[in-house]
Each structure stands twice: as C-alpha cells, then as structure tokens.
Amino acid sequence: MFELRLVRQFVVVAEELNFRRAAERLHMSQPPLSTAMQHLEADIGTALLDRSKHHVRLTAAGKVFYRDAIRLLQFVEQARERARRTGSGLEGALRLSFVPSAALDVLPEIFKRFQRDYPTVQLTLTAETTRRQLEDLQNGHTDLALLVGPVYDSQGLELVALQSQHFVIAVPVGHALARRQKVKMKELAGESFVSFPAAEGAGFAGALLGACQAAGFMPRIVQEASQMQAILTLVAGGLGVALVPSAMRRLHMSEVSFLEIAETRNPPSYQLLFAHAAANDNPVIQAFLASALGPAKPAAA
Cβ(97)–Cβ(136) under 8 Å? Predict the structure, then answer.
C-alpha cells in the first residue's frame, strides 16, 4: 500500500507538470521527488507520468489516478476534521435523560445555547424518574442525566450542580385555600397529601417530608404517583394536595390551583444536578456541560 505522502506529492507534480516547481512547492529537492514518483509508479504497477527532457505529462493512468487522488485527499481531510471536531465535542451524539419537570423551564434555554454552540451534535432525549436515570447511567444506556438531588449512592458518577428549584403547593380548585396566593406549610397539617414515591426520587419525597417536619407535623400521604403530571391529575380529582416543582404551573391545569409557600426562611426547594459516569469519555458530555453551565464545579456527593 502506497503512502499518503506519495499521493500528496503526485498531486503537486500533476498540477505543476514540472519537477522543479513541484519540488519548490513541496519544500524539497528535485531528485528525491523524482525517486518518490518512481516508487509510487512501482507500487501501483503502471506509469503515471510521461517524462522527457522537455516536458512532463500525465499518462492515461496518471489522469485517472490524479482525479481519484484529489478525492482521496479531500476525504482524508474531512476525516481528520471530523475526528478533531468529535474529540473537541463539536460533533458526535449525546444521550441525555432528564426529570420531566425540567423540560418546562430549565432545558429549553439550555438546548438553545447548545444548538447555537454545537449545531452538528445529535441529541437523543428521554424523560425518566431519578431512580431510572441512575440505573441507565450505571448500565451505559445514557451519557448524561439531569436529575433531582441528593444522590445518596454516587459511586462511579460525576455530579455537577445546576441550580436550586422552588416548590409550590397544588390544591384542587374547590379547596378552601384555592383562592389564596400564599399559604404557610403549617396550614396544611390536616391535609391529605399526594406524593412522589421515595423509591423513584428521594429528592422530591425528602423535600415534602422535610418541609412538613419543619412546620411541625408529619404529612399524611394517601396516594403516590411517579410522574408529576399524574400527581396533578390526582390533585385535580380531589384526592389531596401536593408539593410540586414551581415549573408545573406552566401546565395550566384548570382543576388545579398553585399556591406560593409563605415561608421566608428556608423555603422548600430541591437541587437539579447533572450526572454522568466517570468512566464515560464521550467528549460531548463536557461540551454540553460547558454550554449549559459555563465553568462547572463538582457538587458534593
């Protein structure tokens, strides 16, 4: 198999049809260039150049080889550029999972920035609970997850904090508190709650428990659902009230009223985190984090 270097040298000779000028373009002396072309012809098994004292011409085989050599060098350059872009995270693919509530307010702006900065990267998106996101990361089914913290078992994972998110209280429109704009958590002490199951998302479940305990009571949970939209459906049906991400107000459910939480100190909130397997070397992961966060700092596990 002939060397790519010889192909590049042949293209210059074919374009100049003069060994002296070709040697000057290649920044080499003429005798080694002539020897190189002889080696190339020997490798191919036919004459590519018709040489005489007064001219250098391409043979029929040389003309065919020249056209193919141009395409070959273009392909090599494209391959090198794609490899460079992929290694820099400018090209490739990213499998991203996220908690559904993040799609309502956080992710659209992140996607806009990423599309602007990395227009050729292909995103594959899935919406899952935090538990399933962690399983998919461990199994290698996804590259990056936007999930709800805290993550109690982060072995083998890299965690990067995105931002804190606030909760609101969702009540049925016929509820006694539905016309209020704000409510204190202690006013909900006698209410039935619809909750997110701790097995699917410890962050959401823990936030409800902590907010109620801080207000002096334990929540009476009568129903659980593993999707926030399902929780709101249960609230709309009058089964109870719920602590939900403030982003859920964007759904504009006619049978649900959303109330601000009046606590001024330590209002209930949760942390959105990016997580990826530490062993995953997909460069698009860091490119996406850079676009979403700027310089990001690892979160405490």
Answer: yes
Q: Global pTM?
A: 0.70
d(CA 203, CA 207): 6
Q: Cα angle vertex 216, ends 224, 256, to 5°? A: 40
Per-residue model confidence as pLDDT tens digits over 239-262: 999 999 999 999 888 999 999 999
**DSSP secondary structure letters along 254-283:** TTEEEEEE--SSS--EEEEEEEEETT---H
Distance of CA 201 to the CA centre of its chain: 21
Pair type for strands 192-195 and 220-224: parallel
Other Cβ atoms within 10 Å of 22 Cβ, number: 23
Between the alpha carbon of residue 74 and those of residues 4, 67, 156, 263, the distances in Å are 12, 11, 41, 64
pLDDT confidence of residue 110: 93
3-state SS class at 240:
coil
| Angle of the 283-293 helix axis to the 107-117 helix axis, nearest 10 | 120
Q: Which two tokens stand for residue 266?
A: 């330590």
Q: For residue 31, what are its two tokens?
A: 């005798």
Mean pLDDT of 101-129: 90
Q: For the segment 128-178, what is each residue's pLDDT rounded down to a tens digit?
A: 999 999 999 999 999 999 999 888 888 899 999 999 999 999 999 999 999
Rg (CA), the chain: 32
Q: Are the C-beta atoms of residues 207 and 268 closer than 8 Å to each other?
A: yes
